[in-house]
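In practice, a research group might receive sequence data for several interacting partners and want a quick structural hypothesis before committing to experiments. The following worked case mirrors that situation: the sequences arrive first, and a predicted assembly follows.
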Amino acid sequence: MKMKTCEKIQNYINIYYDNALCEKEKKELFAHIEQCHDCKIFYSELENIEKDLHSLPKLIPPSDFSNKVMQALPQKSPGIGLGEKIHEIFMSPVSLRLNAALITILLFFLALRPNREVVINKTTAIAPETNSTNTMDLSLGSQIVNTKFYLSLPLNTPIQSVSVVGDFNDWNVNTFKLKYKSDGIWEGTFPVRPGKHEYMFVINGEKWIPDPKAREYKEDGFGGKNSILVL
Amino acid sequence: MNISGDKAEDLILVQECLNGDKEAFNKLIKKYELPIYNLAFRMMGSNEEALDAAQESFLRAYKALKSFRLEYSFFTWLYTISINVCRNCLKRKKILNFLSISSSSKQTEENNHADIELPDNRMNPEIIYEEKKRSEIIQTAIMKLPDKYKGIVIARYVEGLAYEEIAKIENIPLGTVKTQIHRAKKILIRHIKNAKKMHDDKLAHGIMKIT
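A structural hypothesis for the assembly, expressed as tokens:
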């Protein structure tokens, strides 16, 4: 019984520091920690860590920081090309009717074009001796290319998740997650815009590996390599 | 930070960048270099690595500017990129350390915290020293957190972002943000306790290196 109450109170203590505890709960919390030594310690530990974290000083970057970044910017303007403009129109909720017409036209062109499939052989960084296949299914003709990423991993490795990150999803591990298919193969199809992209695979949300047999690589400026995908 | 006027100003600056006006991007850098540099410093642990990661964050943002959508706030978007850049750097650092081909990583340890500057006009040197030591201990504890918690803790405590904003940045549910912060704090408490104990022991034995 005591355990249950303490568990509840410790949860309250967390919520208290999130500023989300109601008055009644606060009363309960403070009444409890007057009697319970363990919970009182937990309360003061959290109080200290909150103080410690909030007291971290703000650091000022060197005054020439922005100049250095500006010098490192690519010459090319990041401006919108014609392709992206069409895409923008597609994504914009205000021009839905126009979109319907455009979709019809694009579907027409899409129907005229044959689908292409590019197959690249790859070896994973985890098991260089295991060959795996990475197939990219490129359905050209629209502004978004549905790209299939395959990664074959050895069966004896404990793997909970595989995702693909790149400039197309702002290197966010949580967006493009591959699904386990069978025989160690993970795959997923995601929308990628035509163009040149840098990407990597992330295993278990922790281990970042390049595609060792991608057709191209680029130094990422941190001593590693990003794989390059050209659509 | 993200009041609506600010947001509108950012949108105009982004649009100007897309139209080819680089000076507009310079304004965005100047506006956000402080939070991005602080994020990078707290995640990477040294000034040199923080500057590299912060620069890379802005470069990636610039290159990806056309994928920026009106419904985001520029700051949230930039912060997301930056957390991911830092995580990327940390992964590489781990791999390099593991392969022990990185001589710079040892250097990094020594350079750690070298650039933490505290206001010193009103305190005596001993207090400054203790304060500095304390923020070093906290920084070291943050560095020891699992990578997935680091960014969240920094966003919350160094930048003071709301849980809702962190949920957007991390693309995870609000409840998960809270749970992860609670867990991270427990880990931090443990690390800080150990570190303080070691610090006090050293002081007690008079073997503290005075730097």
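Before designing any experiment, note the following. Chain B touches chain A through 68 residues (CB under 8 Å). The longest helix of chain B spans residues 174-204.
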